[in-house]
């Protein structure tokens, strides 16, 4: 997906430090590219504990959820 390839440069151009991508476009490739460029990745909306753990193991820095009681 071209959008994923362009995200690090777009965030740098805007002088951003974090990106908040939707869970449905977030994968290991996107997280790796953004983390390598020095950005934090806070993924929204993640309502599955399993998916939260997957994202954290890929390097996500935070998740947004509708269920804050999830670990």
Explain this structure to me?
The protein is α/β, with parallel strands linked by helices and 71 residues long. It has a domain at 25-71. It is 44% helix and 11% strand. It has helices at 2-13, 28-36, 49-58, and strands spanning 18-19, 40-43, 62-63. A 3-stranded parallel sheet has the order 1-2-3, with helices on one face. Strand 1, helix 2 and strand 2 (40-43) form a beta-alpha-beta unit. The radius of gyration is 12 Å and the shape is elongated. The mean pLDDT is 86.
What is the helix fraction of residues, given as a range?
40-55%
Q: How would you sum up the global shape?
A: elongated
Give me the strand/helix succession. Answer: HEHEHE
- Low-confidence stretches are none
Global mean pLDDT: 86
**Estimated structural class:** alpha/beta
Alpha carbon gyration radius? 12 Å
Strand content: 5-15%
Write the layout of secondary structure elements.
Layout: H1 2-13, E1 18-19, H2 28-36, E2 40-43, H3 49-58, E3 62-63
Parallel strand pairs: 1-2, 2-3
Helix pairs in contact: 1-2
């Amino acid at each position: 997906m071209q959008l994923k390839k362009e995200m690090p440069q777009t965030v740098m151009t805007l002088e951003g430090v974090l990106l908040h991508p939707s869970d449905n476009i977030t994968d290991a490739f996107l997280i790796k590219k953004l983390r390598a460029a020095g950005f934090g990745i806070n993924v929204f909306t993640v309502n599955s504990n399993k998916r939260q753990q997957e994202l954290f193991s890929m390097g996500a820095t935070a998740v947004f959820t509708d269920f804050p009681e999830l670990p």
